[in-house]
Write a structure and sequence with these properties.
Belongs to the sel-1 family. Pfam families: Sel1. This is HCP-like protein. The mean pLDDT is about 95. With about 190 residues, this protein is mainly α. Helix 1 runs antiparallel to helix 2, helix 3 packs antiparallel against helix 4 and helix 9 runs antiparallel to helix 10. The longest helix has 14 residues. The protein starts with a helix and ends with a helix. It folds into 2 domains: about 80 residues, no CATH class; about 80 residues, Tetratricopeptide repeat domain (Serine Threonine Protein Phosphatase 5, Tetratricopeptide repeat, Alpha Horseshoe). Helices cover about 70% and strands about 0% of the residues.
Length: about 190
Amino acid sequence: FQEGWNHLMGDNHTKIDKKIGEHLITDAMHDGSIAAKAFCFFLGWGGHDQNYSKALKYLAKSIRSERNVSTFLAIKGHFYMNGFGVKADNKKGIRLIKKAAALDHAWSQNILGCCYQEGVGVEKNVSKAYKLYKLAAMKGYSKAQYNLGELYLSSKGIKNNREEGLRWLIKSAQQDHWKAMERLGWNS
């Protein structure tokens, strides 16, 4: 599951390749991964219809039984923040994502950074957003690298640093993050 996640999300210095990500996650589901089954129900992959309630059920099982608890806490938090299969509850979603971020989960750190940058479910705090983006970017998460680069270039809440901003955008683009590639003019 984790390797598929890395390809899907551009995590752990892995180039984004959604086809490979879907293939690996679907294979993991067929090999018995409860987390992969949850993900397949969430996205309607592997012969399953999209079903948020079933995805949440399998997600709860995976939190109790599999490694990578942080990933599953983060996804569950995402479900609550967006009302996928449950009543939308930003507080509960943020609490779960904070738990995952505290477990050093890059995707969660980036999502939480976005929440702090925009003031979604938490009080707006660009300094916290910056710190969270930086933590996730250092782990090779391409979306966090992009967000950090944009934050450096925008100078909204932190000191403008064009060189650092471009450096992070380049790192993100090298993992095929399309927004970073577009921002740099690397249309492929």
